[in-house]
Amino acid sequence: MSNFCGLDVGTMNLVSAKLNNDEAVDIKKLRNIFLEVDKDAAEIMDLSGISHTVIDDAMFFIAEDAYNFANILGKEASRPMSNGMISTKEIDSVDILAVMVKELIGTSNGGRCCYSIPADPIDNEMNVIYHQNVFGRIINELGFQAEAINEATAIVYTECEESNFSGIGISFGAGMTNVALVYKAIPTTVFSIARGGDWIDLNTANSTGSISNRVTLLKENSFSLNNHRSGKKKDRKIKEALVYYYHDLINYTIKSIVRSLENTAIELPESLPVIISGGTSMVDGFVEMVRQVIEQYEFPFEVSEIRHAGNPLTAVAEGCLIRALKYQN
After folding, report:
1. pTM above 0.85, yes or no
2. What torsion do the CA atoms of 69, 79, 88, 279 make, to the nearest 10 degrees?
3. Strand partners, 307
4. What is the DSSP string of 169-231?
5. Element (H, E) at 251
6. Could you tell me which residues come within 8 angstroms of residue 291 by beta carbon, excluding any fewer than 6 positions away?
7. Tens digits of per-residue pLDDT, 12-41?
């Protein structure tokens, strides 16, 4: 069983799902971030409890330790991925990602690993070809047979068994927002939007004279879309901006879905559920805001329900695992 795994390749987090010997699902998560540190100074430290790696004689702290040290030192940590794909700005991105993927899924001798990829964005000229093939190569080199599946489709696999694996999955990630309309397990419409949590943080930081790290920290620790008027004056200013950018992202996404459905030649079912997932959707009040926005639009079918995935941070990885398990003998 352990030879089958699902891997959510997210801009903010990398998440794996594997079956253990008791056929329960084991979930592991790493923050997708790294920080280059002075190698001579770092080697004086006790590094036994710190996630780190050395590449070409340079030392990097990775995952949560990189995030924590970046905040302590007042530095901007580096991201191996940007806008949902491998970053072109960081020369060490692929090597760092290979280290973290191995830590999450280990090695195999012919097992199968399904990993998530975004769809090509409708509002940007980026494509997923390089991103998809690099991760396929990393996973293959660990001894797995790699298969890429659409990120939002994986959410429907996890959450929509009762509706015969039919529904609209919306994955609000850090780098992108991914959308998939899936009918009876077959993705019929998939696309992404080149906006996500990072877009919110960057625009909030630019609008309020802050830095993205601080915005992210505040957002994760003390922010609610339903109550953003508490705290210090500077924090209230940031929270107000966050509300505006969250609403704009949601409205932009729903408008894009409606336009896509209007142009489709597919015969749509009478009703479908809408499943919300992804780290950006974790903030308090997010799903309620999605409901309010959806009410302002007319869909070509009945929206039977709008709900959060059972676990928005692991739904993609679990859906990838479901796909991988399809290949059991």
Report:
1. yes
2. -170
3. 275
4. EEEE-SS-EEEEEEETTEEEEEEEES-SHHHHHHHHHHHHT--HHHHHHHHHHH-BTTB-S-S
5. helix 233-262
6. 306
7. 899 999 987 777 789 999 999 888 776 766
